[in-house]
């Protein structure tokens, strides 16, 4: 079983296109594990997929993208489905980071961080993770420091994604500095 491909397919199904699998996410993004497995098994590649592979996939991944609980599974962040996935509000640490491409920086420093194609802006707890995120779009990404605690105290909502990924609706430019 190719666990990396399985993770990518699940991210696609649970973040972006549940309808293609005839799945419906609940308000927190959960779907029934058995329904998901049945939908996956319709494709030849996943005919043999079982629940244990989902656990192995989560275990094998360096990033905690998915979560299983009580017979349900969900993506923890990254959604672009039209129905807004409700996330748990949580006070962020003093600072968070965002790695981005050089070509986006002037627009970000003018309009702030916006969710673009996804439902939320994604922020990282540590600089290393943020730089990795930025490297997806730029060999030499720019690291932005987000003054998260100040933004929170002044009314910006932050949400918990996983231990390393934080979410926000948007971040005003006044809380962002270029590292
Ligand atoms: C940029 C992956 C211009 C923003 C990653 C980013 C992450 C602006 C892009 C997770 C802007 C959106 C999310 C503005 C934001 N003007 N550009 N005002 N505001 N942007 O992919 O944070 O591996 O939606 O800087 O590793 O790059 O899939 O967000 O470059 O954790 O699990 O607009 O997705 O995780 O891009 O990545 P994205 P992201 P996985």
UniProtKB/TrEMBL annotation:
HAMAP family per record? KptA
Q: Which gene encodes it?
A: kptA
EC number per UniProt: 2.7.1.-
Gene Ontology molecular-function annotations: NAD+ poly-ADP-ribosyltransferase activity; tRNA 2'-phosphotransferase activity
Write down what this protein is called: Probable RNA 2'-phosphotransferase
Q: Which UniProt keywords apply?
A: NAD, Transferase
Instruction: Tell me where on the tree of life, at the top rank, the source sits.
Output: Bacteria
Spell out the Gene3D superfamilies in the cross-references.
3.20.170.30, RNA 2'-phosphotransferase, Tpt1/KptA family, N-terminal domain
Query: Which processes are annotated in GO (biological process)?
Result: tRNA splicing, via endonucleolytic cleavage and ligation
Q: What does this protein do?
A: Removes the 2'-phosphate from RNA via an intermediate in which the phosphate is ADP-ribosylated by NAD followed by a presumed transesterification to release the RNA and generate ADP-ribose 1''-2''-cyclic phosphate (APPR>P). May function as an ADP-ribosylase.
What species does this protein belong to?
Brevibacillus parabrevis
Its top-level enzyme class, in one word, is: transferase
- Assigned protein family: Belongs to the KptA/TPT1 family.
Pfam families xref list: PTS_2-RNA
């Amino acid at each position: 079983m190719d666990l990396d491909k399985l993770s990518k397919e699940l991210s696609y199904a649970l973040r972006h296109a549940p309808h293609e699998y005839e799945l419906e996410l609940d308000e927190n993004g959960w779907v029934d594990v058995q329904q998901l497995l049945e939908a996956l098994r319709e494709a030849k590649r996943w005919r043999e997929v079982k629940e244990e592979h989902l656990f192995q996939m989560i275990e094998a991944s360096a990033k905690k993208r998915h979560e299983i609980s009580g017979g349900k599974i969900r993506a923890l962040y990254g959604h672009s489905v039209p129905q807004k996935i409700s996330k748990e509000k949580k006070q962020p640490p003093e600072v968070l980071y965002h790695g981005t491409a050089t070509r986006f920086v002037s627009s970000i420093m003018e309009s702030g961080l916006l969710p673009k194609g996804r439902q939320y802006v994604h922020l990282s707890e540590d600089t290393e993770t943020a730089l990795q995120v930025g490297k997806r779009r730029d060999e030499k990404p720019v690291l932005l420091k987000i003054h998260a605690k100040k933004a929170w105290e002044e009314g910006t909502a932050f949400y918990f994604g996983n231990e390393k990924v934080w979410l926000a609706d948007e971040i005003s430019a006044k809380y962002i500095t270029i590292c």
